[in-house]
Amino acid sequence: MPPLPQTSREIRLTTVPDGLPRPEHFVIAEVPLPVPDDGQVLVRNRFFHVFAALRTLIGGSVEGAPIPPLRPGDTLIGPAIGEVVSAAGNSGPQAGDLVSHWLGWREYAVVPVGQVTPLGDELPDPVAHLGQGGLAYAALTRDAAVRRGDTVFVSGAAGGVGSLAGQIARLLGAGQVIGSTGSREKADRLISELGYDAAVIRGAAPIEEQLAKAAPDGIDVYLDNVGGDQLQAAVAAARPGARFVLVGALSGQMSPHGTGGTAPVELDTYRLILKRISMRAFQGLDEQARSQWLERFGGWLRAGDITFPHVRVSGIDCAPRALQEMIEGRHFGTVIVEL
């Protein structure tokens, strides 16, 4: 293993933006290389995930959120994969082990042993551990219980969750899978690359009209990553007994107005009652669901039954720009910074 450097670089928030974050709201800080204490490991990060919820954390988070808000001077956080280069003590991961943890956005991180997860050999490419398919898998198998022949609608289908959700729904036996996205180019890729049967395009025409055309007989399952008018359209298109799972709220997170911590929408309660629509929030990814997902995901990847759509951006210097581009919808699939 090459000698360790004396310093490490990390991305820090300098100013809470008035609106959407841009590269000028961050700084690349050079700091002394951290040294692990007992019960900690030093990890050289190799990849980290650029995820939408950062917009909310930067804007001030929301009450009851599991992650505290970021303040000026704080280093950004997020899912990361790295190699253990130094460990204090013989318990836990040792030098050379690949692990996942939540202290991304920096080249080196000191992480408590209890907050790192050693990577097994379930997936053929370690970077696939940064995919968000586990959320989609748990939402579709447990919270919505997709049945064979179901018509499934996925909003935000070209994002990190949606780009895997459509493929998973198909593998679970869905009869028709429809996705929403922001451009014709992405819509074509959803259909040609990810197995979607149809796509509705935000801004091309009212979503409700497009969805009614794509699913004239209605939808059985809605995996909601967006909220807003797409949730309204799903209610209008729902068949009796439809199952909705609320996973994300991109309509609020990606809005240039506010802090990204609210996503209000007006729904017709009468329609919900008459159609007997069940609507529940995503119930989280517990260890059992995560283990099951990794086993199935690995098998599907090796068999060529599923792909992991993602974009790799090289270098920590490009990370703030990658965040802006992700918010602006310029990328397809999961956005990952490679160090």
Automatic annotation (TrEMBL):
Keyword field: Oxidoreductase
Signal peptide boundaries: none
A matching Pfam family: ADH_N_2
Domain Enoyl reductase (ER), first and last residues per copy: 19-337
Upper taxonomic lineage: Bacteria, Bacillati, Actinomycetota, Actinomycetes, Streptosporangiales
GO molecular function, one term: oxidoreductase activity, acting on the CH-CH group of donors, NAD or NADP as acceptor
Protein name in UniProt: Enoyl reductase (ER) domain-containing protein
InterPro entries associated with the record: ADH-like_C, ADH_N_2, ER, GroES-like_sf, MDR_fam, NAD(P)-bd_dom_sf
SUPFAM superfamilies associated with the record: GroES-like (SSF50129), NAD(P)-binding Rossmann-fold domains (SSF51735)
